[in-house]
Amino acid sequence: DNSFWYRGTADAIAQNLDFLKKCHEPYVIIASGDGVYKLDYNKVLEYHIEKKADITVVCKDLPRGEDATRFGVIKMNEDSRIEEFEEKPMVSNSTGIYVIRRRQLIELIERCALEDRHDFVKDILIRYKNLKRIYGYKIKDYWSNIASVDSYYKTNMDFLKPEVRDYFFHQYPNIYSKVDDNPPAKYNPGCEVKNSLVSNGCIINGYVENSVLFKKVFVGENCV
After folding, report:
1. In the prediction, which pLDDT does 41 show?
2. b/e per residue, 165-198, with b = 16+ CB within 10 A?
3. Rg (CA), the chain
4. Closest CA to 99 of 140, 36, 55, 142
5. What single DSSP character describes residue 3?
6. Closest-CA residue to 112 (of 4, 8, 2, 3)
7. DSSP string over 4-61
8. What is the C-alpha to C-alpha distance for residues 23 and 6, in angstroms, rounded to an integer?
9. pLDDT band for position 90 (50/70/90)?
């Protein structure tokens, strides 16, 4: 119908509205594609229904000193109903995960499209925050956004922490990575490796510390 790339979450849904209209499920979960987390969506949906919410926003308290300007920042009352919502720079940040009734979503998205609006946060959440019952569902476990080079690097470094690795790879449900049929990593005499993630197909002759190595990486002698 048009020649635009997605201009925002609302526009992305608008361009796939036929899919939503053909569905029969009562609820829709919208999930950001650049989050790293584990979440039981059944619990979020149960919370959404229990609160009789129009929209539920999954959110996460930011650690002290974390830059909140990249996220939608929200303020909730004691009942977890959202009172304030700033699109970009309160107490929690939105993770870009939302639960909403399918028919209501279609109605809101069609209204946005008619008015040439494209942003889910600005054009739906902020615009209707006093008209709709919008609640926040807090997640306490690990969540990270990898939408920038800095955050992508930081998230990789987080996986060098034993507790983060254990949470994702050894606690149910486990996260499985895609495996190529490469030989296992080879550590030759004289090499030294400390606190690193080394993929299969790697050959290590030198010194590796606090690093994440992709598949088939070769580290030569005297290399650090």
Report:
1. 96
2. eeebeeeeeeeeeeeeeeeebebeeebebeeeeb
3. 22
4. 55
5. -
6. 8
7. PPP-SHHHHHHTTHHHHHH---SEEEE--TTEEE---HHHHHHHHHHTT-SEEEEEEP
8. 21
9. very low
